[in-house]
Amino acid sequence: MEFSYIEKIGNGLFKMKKHDKMNVDALIVGTQRIVDSLRKDKTLWQLKNVASLPGIVKNAVLMPDAHEGYGFPIGGVAAFDAKDGIVSPGGIGYDINCGVRLLLTPLSKEELMDKRNEIVEELFKNIPTGVGEEGKLRLSVDELEEVVSSGIDWAIEKGYAWKEDKERIEEYGRMKADASKVSSRAKQRGKGQLGTLGAGNHFLEVQVIEKIFDERAGAFGLEKGKVVVMIHTGSRGFGHQIASDYVREFMPIARKLNLYMPDPELVYLPLKHEKAQDYLKAMASAVNFAFVNRQMITYWARESFSRVFGSSVGDEMHLVYDVAHNIAKIEEHEVNGKKRKLIVHRKGATRAFPAGREELPSLYRHVGQPVLIPGSMGTASYVLVGMPKGLNVSFGTTCHGAGRVMSRRAAIRSFRGEVLVKQLKEKGILVKPKTWRVAAEEAPQAYKDVDEVAKSVELAGISRIVARLKPLAVIKG
Q1: Of 67, 232, 345, 400, which one is the catalytic site residue?
Q2: What is the span of the domain harbouring residue 86?
């Protein structure tokens, strides 16, 4: 039914007109083919529900990699007043601060290929992967609390991060957190998982910069033919438990307050409520955990490259940037000609600020924020840059990856992991999965066409393609 209210309003941009109980219109970024594909699940119904939330500002927004999620669609963006608005855990997601970082190496493709098998084995041995896998660090609860309070500063102090890394991480690797707002169950789950890749769509991928599209690549340190390392993971069981705890705690309060909910999975509370503030402090704890988690993997990746290629290689593996996908943040945006402080929910969506935004580090402020868009294990990934139009269309937000079109169960029924790995090797991509099952779950065919996703956000003018990255080796949990 929602399709009858959708109209094209520009290149790569559609609008779902306000209807039923929607408080605002909803914008959809994508090509006609991508929009048509949204008929297959509840994504558009969930988008309509988000647009029906009280106090939503301007528009609800859907990215081209969107698909059905918990309450909010994955690939959804929504903003509310930072003082009188609401917060919804479903609008951030269960894997809080699932995100991506990109490391440069000084290696050429040819240099990498000479020792590709060796570096894959070293990375697989050095970086814990898989469902429920624990890390090499054994933290006490007190030490975990220090990690989530200090964020990347903890890693710098312990020698796991370079000072320059901090400048190249969203939020500089630290949000204001309060570990006392995190349950003991979440802490028990988290204290053994720092520095672990996890499973599912999380990965470490060795890639080559296949093509440069924009001169901003130079500012990001990207050069055709050079090898890079992409890391995709989040807050593991720690963040998942925090989300579960607060969804459960929000529900009776929301019912007692008689709050309108188009879907129980969209449970929310007014920002002024004490429990909402507790959630934001706990969320920030998971955000900081995820930043440090990716940093630990970076530390061991640098160590692995040093062992295989020599210490000079590891010492030259500089961080390009680290972006968060599942997060809520207070930001200033222009609405109806006036600047307002908003709490922006991004779920499966990436902040993509243009040049000039003060939130960006000084080394990128003159060109705009690097945006990292992973594909599937058999397809390209992209580096984008935020553009000014994105501030008006999507609160400075763009896509976060390819986006699934097939459930994990359907993928397992349709593909054999060992066959996929063999086929990818024949295409020049070496895949090292923890299990054949995870290889089947992550079949490239289970995802949208990442090339079309990237094309969509460029067509809409919210970000621009800077570089295309081709996978050479993939480690899957």
Answers
A1: 400
A2: 2-93+330-351
